[in-house]
Amino acid sequence: MEVGLMAKQAAVTKPHAFPARSLGFGSSVRGGSGTSRIGYEAPASVAWRKRSIRVARDGTIRSEVVVEEKASPPPRKDKAGPGRLYVGLPLDVVADGNVVNHGKAIAAGLRALALLGVDGVELPISWGVAMDSGDWSSYLAVASMARDAGLHLRISLHLHCHRRPRLPLPKSVDCAAAADPDILFTDRAGRRRADCLSFAVDDLPVLDGRTPMEAYEEFFRSFRLAFADFFGSVITDITIGLGPNGELRYPSFPPTGSNRFTGVGEFQCYDKYMLADLKRHAEETGNPLWGLSGPHDAPGYNQLPDSGNFFKDHGGSWETPYGQFFLSWYSGKLLSHGDGLLSVASEVFGDLPVALSAKVPLLHCWHDTRSRPSQLTAGFYNTDGRDGYEAVAKIFAKHSCSMIIPGMDLTDGEQPQGVRSGPQSLLSQIMGACKRHGVKLAGENSSLVRVGTAGFTNIKENALAENSRLDSFTYQRMGAEFFSPDHWPLFTEFIRSMAQPEMEQDDIPSNAERLSLSINSVPGNDRELQSA
Amino acid sequence: MLLVRWKPVLHCPPQGHPRRGFAWPRGPRRSLLLWRPIRSPAPAFLSISSSKFSQAGRARVRPIVRAGLAQTPSLADVENAEILFSETLSLKRSQTVEGKIAVRLDPAGAEEEVSKWRLTIGCNLEGKWTLHWGVSYCDDLGSEWDQPPPEMRPPESVLIKDYAIETPLKRLSSQSERQILHELQIEFDSNTPIAAIHFVLKEEETGAWFQHKGRDFRISFTDYFEVDNSVGGNQGFSIWPGTFDEISSLLLKAEESTSKKDDPDDEDGNVVKQNRCIAPIYKEFPILKEEFVPNHMTVSVRSSDKTDKNIVQFDTDLPGDVVIHWGVCMDDGRKWVIPSTPHPPATKIFRQKALQTLLQPKADGLGSWGLFLVDEGTSGVVFVLKLNEYTWLNNNGTDFFIPIGSVSSTTAEIGSDDIVHEQQAGTETHDVRNSLSPNNSYPLQNKSLEASDPKNINILPMKPQGAQEAKEAVAYTDEIIKEIRHLVTDISSEKGKRAKSKEAQENILQEIEKLAAEAYSIFRISIPCFVESVSDTELMKPAVKLSSGTGSGYEILCQGFNWESHKSGRWYSELRDNTKELSSLGFTVVWLPPPTESVSPEGYMPKDLYNLNSRYGSLEELKDLVNSFHEVGIKVLGDAVLNHRCAHYQNKNGIWNVFGGRLNWDDRAIVADDPHFQGRGNKSSGDNFHAAPNIDHSQDFVRRDLKEWLRWLRKEVGYDGWRLDFVRGFWGGYVKDYMEATEPYFAVGEYWDSLSYTYGDMDHNQDAHRQRIVDWINATNGTAGAFDVTTKGILHSALEKCEYWRLSDQNGKPPGVVGWWASRAVTFIENHDTGSTQGHWRFPSGKEMQGYAYILTHPGTPAVFYDHIFSHYQQEISRLISVRNENKIHCRSTVKITKAERDVYAAEIDGKLAVKIGPGYYEPPNGPTKWVVAAEGRDYKVWETS
Fold first, then answer.
1. Check: complex ipTM more than 0.90
2. Do A483 and B519 touch (CB under 8 A)?
3. What is the rounded distance in angstroms from the CA atom of residue B595 to the CA atom of residue B604?
């Protein structure tokens, strides 16, 4: 297992050294991982590849867009040090209606990033945008732009809602949801969660006779065919969006409101199918009354943990047998959803020379309580005395999937008072679980690092820490703010300093020889003074 | 064999003003504008040759010999040492001899026979000279030559196809010193309607031609054509045979009255009215011929008793200062390494890569010698010789290599090491006495000579001419060029290139800042982008309905004709017999010759666009042929000549600029900036093709008519796409218009201009060249691809001169268009212009399969030339095509270059194919991928995954 995993990772880290055919390794990983996958032997995959290319002929012809910048990519370096650096493209890079948004800006941005030495970009692909038109051309156009700029790609496939901007579901799914609103997540008040299919219908034929899992698989395969030319050389990673915001979680945050959500959130188990499953589960465990509804004493989205009885640090319902019953079922649904979706993904992409990854949220608010309510509502049964991330890491390990953890920029000290947040301790808990199960780690920031925060320093520390070396780091996200004079110089400095560990080994005679940016090399908080 | 290569250099006659140098009967009175004095580079030239000739006698300036070199071997060491290896190298040093070509035109007949004229072409250098010539007639607007009328042909003339003849120059017994040695006289009647005589000269023994930038000497008898006389400084001389050296075309401007009234054409009202003017002329062109002087160098290796080092002794009879530019190699890789200290006296370190050691003159002044100490454990010494700043001697384009490590096998090993070295039969015999050092203090000399095979090592003189130009363009060794190549601009790897890269980095930083600012400004404007609809300028709407003109991406193109195909008059029927075979070979697209009525038989001078009966066959035969191709699944490209069109009628001034047929345009359809055709349209949006009226595509009616014509062709003939002729002539945006109107399945334009050369040596970086092609494709909005002329040019240099490192650009990508925009690059190695019987730019002979191994394994859409398909190459080509198809290589496949060195280039394509070309060794690494040989031939090999 371990060996196979490493081989696969190696293929990812040096895409040029193992082009297209690290299949043998890929299959051995599968073989060792417990799921029986005889079909992954080389001949089968070859046939697969051929098929994919043949179909892609029709798919790709129209898609090529005249990219204005035809500069050839800069030489690629194989970093030994701090993993690969990516920058996320705007979530709406291809907007509704299947057009590339602000393509010129992206072209210029890609070139700037390539020159700066960034390894690649993350391209978010929306299920709805891509499948509605049945046309991958805009996404392919963006991918070609990245390729032409000499950048790698991490593709993230978004299947569920996103807080902002909205990523729509395919129209056919919308229609099915209109006909049967219960296939969408529903909160206690009966509000439907737009654009987010309930995990309970994963294997139910609710979409014109097909199950969502089948629809996801179709989407994956369609993506694979369309991008057949890019795997191995350009695309190095595929990230599966396991839930809302592309993270493995329930949509426990409020349906409207700001991004900065610090409440406890709500359980999302009130659609007909979730309730039916809960009822069945309750009956199976011999407590049929527990299956009639969700916890009645849980607080609302923006309330404090103490507002209801459920999350109380002492004597809360979460510690009762009912609480344990409900939370086990609720988190179990999340895990089986994640497991199922990763199975589909590794079946579709397993033979490609790309790494599979998925993201878990860093639910750091209220981490410093015993019940950790925001994690519980999101589906992680991670309370005082119970490690909820062990099971998650196990599933990731089973599918050789690396775990992307956002929030690398956060520190405990900088969080608002009163929400008892603990991003660093939560982070180290998740990292520890991954390490125990041999899951590779990748990082993201939670938001753009702004002037005056220690964000970049934290990212650096996290990325370079000896015991938890990140495989890659993706900086979120490109946009106006990203290129603004307030942010861009900090970012260039950050990129430069990430490369520094290598440089110090070089016999550079003096600092004068180094590249000096508009902002001098000043670490951490001193920057505040500089740019003020 | 005496290798003679000569360089014509134009210069002034000795008189002060060039015009007075000619024996005009009367001074030229008219068209002074057309007369451009020929500027002369002569002074510079003189200085070069003098510096060359005075080389031997030049006073030596010796570098200061470093003191205190304790370990410098003494002669005593040498005498006691055992010889491990010895070899005598024959060196050919070039020496330049000056000569001249004389062109004389004078009346031949008696007083009353004013129409008899004689053209005399002479040359006063040794050699076997042949004049390759033809004429153009007054009524022919084409640029092609014709054969002269029979009465003009001197005896012994040989017809070359139907457009030229070759006549040898006769050797005259020289009466005096400066007498012309070779001469040819052509007599002709000025009444024959000849507009011009064109010629090039050929020296049979070396096969060297010369021409002026692809143009010929031209002696024009009319003032009709614009003649490019702009021959000045920048003469790029090439150093390999077969390349055209530059020389001026020659304009004879003359009297309008001399022969006009004798011209019978004038009596016939309908014929051309041109100013036919002939005047006597005498003109000389100084030329430089290079001769090779045999010299020798003996290299012996001995082990030293006193140290653990080997002593390498160099001994040569080369006159003057001889600098050995040398290094050692530690393994078989031939990678130059600086030897460990101490270095011999008078040694300089050259760019951290090599040593330059000045040899010491021998006691008798005839030659020089040197002793070097080399550590044991080095595998050999590599060196080239530097005679002066501009002259280097190397081993047939490669470095000399003296093995040291494996001392037992001496000459045999050298022989096998010199992969590119071709044994030339009949080269000079080894002259032992010459190579004997006059200094007898080297007792082992004789033995060494006997032991070594005489090796024929040709020394290519590097740019011996053009001293003032060649300052920085010294003949770079491969090594130095590699060094420059490795000066990558990677921002974060700063090792070992501090000063240079610093500036580059600052530039990059500025670029980054600029790009970020640009991105910011756009993003900022469109922040609410995902809420509202986006303005048009911010959208990059994929070209959904736009035809990309690249076919399926898996196309393989066949050029279905050559320059001779019109000869039979039934090419369409003949080709029809081959449709099945072409299909079974794997071709998916065929390019047919231009179908319209044409002034020239090959079809590239179209006249009535709607008349599709041509020298290739009738419209019906064409349709049948297209149908046959369609039946076997091959798409058909029509050759559309859109740049120019020949007129049907003259206007009232006698200018041929009125069109007939269905598209009866007038002079508004012709660009205004070509004075010959007096167009009234706008200025040309591209380069002009001077032989016919250039169409003004900016006129709406012209574009409308052309679009209608192209649509008609698609419908009527069944063409699936286009090959667009001479697209340099007009803006690519118009092509976009045409492509969008006709939605071709596949379209490719011929954008052919010259690559960049520096002093005859092709530049490694051809980005500017491919940028021009990519710019054109961009202008078409990607609706059409373009022939990858860049790749062809680079393959020429790489294969011809064994410089396979050229096949990787600075970024490790293919250096042609295919490296930048593979899906729009149509790669080819030969077509009807470059090869066939025209041979304007022929692919290195015998290396065609290497070229095909490259283009048929790489991305881009490969095009195979008809002549190669139906030749002994067919099997190999067929094999490569099926390997390409089996592995589903397509025009967007990715290339990973795994090796680009002097003598071998290798790459992996899509991880499915590995290919190497070149004589060097390469095997793909067998890691997780198992490679098996899929195709193989002379100097190339292709593997696929098992």
1. no
2. yes
3. 9
